[in-house]
Amino acid sequence: MSIQSGNVYKIYNGKSGTILDLSGTDGRTVSGFSDNNGDNQKWQLEQGPGGHWTFRSVASGQYLGVDGPIENGTPLVSVNEPFRWDIYPDDEDSSVFRVYVPGASTATNIDLSDHGNATPGTIVTLWIKWEGKNQTWRFEQA
Question: In this structure, what CATH number is given to the domain that contains residue 58?
Fold first, then answer.
């Protein structure tokens, strides 16, 4: 599947099957959650200069980003300003993708924490790339 700029997607973790969810409670926390087809689980992707991508929440209009250092364990949150990401097919399974912070000193990507724990509410963080499926994501047009 190719990802198209301007389209809205639901984004599922490659290991747990949970969906990238912006908290309906605080409007800031990003976690893996069961699919409830809410707008807080839908992201509009836009590709900008240099091929980088932004993820904008359909529910809030805010962007998927980080509010902290680019390092292992930094949680993803919603932010006011566009945050740039790179999206590449996984080396082992081209049906899923990895989402990286461009220009990081090491390959740092989005990671469903606790090795891809499927429990609803599991936090999504940054982590250095390793072969875990909990760092892969399936994009489904909403």
Answer: 2.80.10.50
- Please compute, for residue 35, the number of CA atoms within 13 A of its CA located in the half-sphere on the CB side: 13
Spatial distance between the Cα atoms of 114 and 7, rounded to a whole number of angstroms: 30
Here the tokens at position 36 are 């409830």
Question: What is the extent of the structural domain holding 136?
Answer: 8-141
Structure tokens at 61: 């209009």
pLDDT in tens, 60-89: 999 999 999 999 999 999 999 999 999 999
pTM: 0.96
Return the number of other C-beta atoms located less than 10 Å from residue 1's C-beta: 13
The DSSP output letter for 50 is G
